[in-house]
Design a protein that fits this description.
Length: 198
């Protein structure tokens, strides 16, 4: 019978994506055996993340500064804006190192099924950014899912009338493909071959 503390840790780990109760229990046992090493390291890393991470008030990225290091980087092209569903997508695209502009994180995708409406996402903030001027291209980098594409078309409609070119990632992304799971070569190709949305 494990102690309450161990049960609590196991339950917390079991909620992580990709882990279940079985692997959580294995991870806990592994950590207990390394009380002075890996466990300390994990506690410190978690504490540091909790204490320092903030959401960027401009783009929605998660970083240790607000504005985030991408928004604050003068070498990035302020005239190109890439719109993504989640922070994980931003990180995936940025790892591919082909897009040199800035980002906008929506915080999800429109979904009738899950009851996600336009006002639940940062679409108004995106429109305000574009309306403020200085942006030539808005690249809609939604996932190749039905909900992702519905979201892209909705945003493209809302952008109509604003003086920007609206593009999307090249097709060839696997249908149902989530950006976060694609390899960097595939992502880079999708960015390079991006095309007007229509
Ligand atoms: Zn930012």
């Amino acid at each position: 019978m494990a102690s309450q503390e161990i049960e609590r840790l196991t339950a917390a780990l079991a909620r992580l994506p990709g882990l279940g109760p079985r692997s959580a229990r294995r991870a806990v046992l592994w950590l207990i055996k390394r009380r002075e090493g890996a466990l300390v390291e994990l506690v410190e890393a978690l504490g540091a993340v909790r204490a320092t991470l903030v959401e960027c008030g401009t783009c929605g990225n998660v970083d240790t500064t607000d504005p985030c290091s991408i928004c604050a980087d003068p070498r990035r092209d302020a005239r190109a804006l890439c719109v993504v569903e989640e922070v994980a997508d931003l990180w995936a695209l940025d790892r591919a190192r082909l897009f040199t502009g800035r980002y906008h994180v929506l915080g999800g995708r429109l979904s009738a099924l899950d009851g996600v409406r336009p006002e639940d996402l940062t679409i108004d903030r995106l429109l305000a950014r574009v309306a403020a001027g200085g942006i030539d291209e808005v690249l809609l980098a939604m996932n190749a899912t039905l909900e992702g594409q519905t979201t892209a078309h909705y945003i493209a409609e809302r952008l109509e009338g604003l003086p920007v070119r609206v593009t999307q990632l090249a097709h060839g992304l696997p249908v149902g493909g989530e950006l976060d799971y694609l390899d960097e070569g595939t992502l880079a190709q999708a960015i390079r071959a991006r095309r007007p949305l229509g």
